[in-house]
Specification:
hydrolase, Rossmann fold, alpha/beta, AB_hydrolase_3, membrane, EC 3.1.1.71
């Protein structure tokens, strides 16, 4: 028996070593998060291994697991009819409440974009499916969960174009009539990379005076909004906090913009926005200037990282770093003034916290009504972790607060 015990002990120590991660005690349910993170990390490691062996792209490996484990068919319930369809050629899952309040009654509508770094995930995943069902029931709303194309097959601006196409299609008068949706009560929303797409699409539609029907509100859940500064206080503070590590976010950006991973170190040192690079004008720098856009409590005593000399290669190779359709935080004030009222969720333990906070500030300065919903114990992605086996109290809390905001404002 002795070798057995020794082996068990050794394995337990190895497992504990793999799982254990020092986390701030202000984060929600740290032990659960460690286990969730270990599962994610093991998928990532398997993906990287298969990638290095030349078997498959690392994103394909992760998406294979996600699809096998998480994606479910369109299952209607007594209260919500669920259909997989496509909007202007873009796949989408539609959730329609079946409870008829009264005849000719018009429902609310929400266009939703899932997260996953423009590369992973699907609106057909269990977690998003559940979120959209709750929204459909609670809001008496038709929810359109858009499955825009993903990297590595697709790169910017393809994801953005899919998002814009699907949103524009849903707002067509005959489509709204078909779904019995009130044209004055449609929201656009999304989390993480989906929040990026929602913000970019709503800016574009606000500026375009040809679309008669506009979104009434936008709800952005821990959105990613800029790639000029990878050293905001939240990037500095949360670089090693699961589930979105700082280098992973840089890789997602490079995958989206079709840049080489060899640029990761340059992005992480802000080399691409060094002070001697005239390709990044002063007016654009001001739009990500957290020394001005963040409250002192969030700035803490972090220092700005802006090297004197950099490599012009990055912005030359990836001009989309300066494109507002990829980085909505870079929009001009004039564009921001035209966008609808916003709900912005941010989490303290998230590298993207300051992307959201800076956007909230810029929108407010442009005169847009903003509801800030900040979670002191939140971490990136928490809102979709509201059901077994990955159920966090901050997940449930943030999801219902988000739905409540829509109930009161849509
Ligand atoms: C619509 O926008 C275009 C370009 O911004 C502008 O030239 C045109 O005058 C606008 N039309 C209306 C009716 O406002
Ligand atoms: C992405 O980059 C590769 C290599 O640099 C290039 O061959 C390909 O055409 C690019 N794809 C798109 C969609 O721009
Ligand atoms: C930025 O990158 C360039 C090119 O790789 C390098 O020569 C330069 O030293 C870097 N600057 C800093 C501050 O790291």
């Amino acid at each position: 028996m002795k070798p057995f015990f020794a082996a068990t002990l050794l394995l337990s120590v190895a497992a504990a070593y793999y799982v254990y991660l020092p986390l701030p005690n202000t984060i929600c349910e740290p032990w659960k998060l460690m286990i969730l993170d270990a599962v994610f990390r093991s998928f990532m490691h398997m993906g990287d291994l298969a990638h290095d062996l030349g078997l498959s792209h690392h994103i394909h490996v992760i998406n294979y697991f996600v699809t096998k484990v998480e994606v479910k068919g369109p299952q209607s319930s007594n209260t919500v009819r669920v259909t997989d369809t496509s909007f202007a050629g873009v796949p989408a899952r539609v959730f329609e409440p079946t409870t008829q309040v009264k005849e000719h009654h018009l429902k609310r509508g929400v266009v939703y974009f899932h997260g996953g770094g423009w590369a992973m995930g699907s609106g057909r995943m269990r977690s998003y499916d559940l979120l959209c069902r709750n929204m459909a029931e609670e809001l008496d709303a038709v929810i359109v969960s858009v499955d825009y194309c993903l990297a590595p097959e697709a790169h910017f601006p393809q994801q953005y174009h899919d998002a814009l196409k699907a949103a524009t299609f849903f707002l067509r008068p005959e489509v709204l009539v078909q779904y019995s949706v009130d044209p004055k009560r449609v929201a656009i929303s999304g989390d993480s990379a989906g929040g990026n797409l929602a913000a970019a699409v709503v800016q574009q539609m606000a500026a375009d005076n040809r679309t008669a029907t506009k979104f009434k509100v936008q709800a952005l859940i821990y959105p990613v909004l800029q790639a000029l500064d990878f050293n905001t206080p939240s990037y500095q503070q949360n670089g090693n906090i699961p589930i979105l590590y700082r280098p992973v976010m840089a890789r997602f950006w490079l995958e989206y913009l079709n840049g080489s991973y060899s640029l990761v170190p340059l992005l992480l040192t802000n080399n691409h926005t060094a002070l001697d690079l005239t390709k990044v004008p002063e007016t654009v720098r001001a739009r990500v200037d957290w020394m001005h856009l963040l409250q002192p409590a969030f700035r803490k005593d972090y220092r700005r990282v802006s090297p004197a000399h950099g490599s012009a290669q990055v912005v030359e190779e990836l001009p989309a770093l300066l494109d507002v359709r990829a980085a909505p935080l870079l929009a001009e004030d004039e564009v921001l003034r035209a966008v609808p009222p916003a709900y912005i969720m941010t989490c303290e333990h998230d590298v993207l916290r300051d992307d959201g906070l800076m956007y909230a500030q810029r929108l407010e300065e442009a005169g847009v009504a903003v509801t800030r919903d900040h979670y002191e114990d939140g971490f990136h992605g928490c809102m979709v972790f509201s059901s077994w086996p990955a159920k966090f109290s901050v997940g449930t809390r943030s999801m219902w607060n988000y739905i409540q905001w829509l109930k009161e404002n849509l």
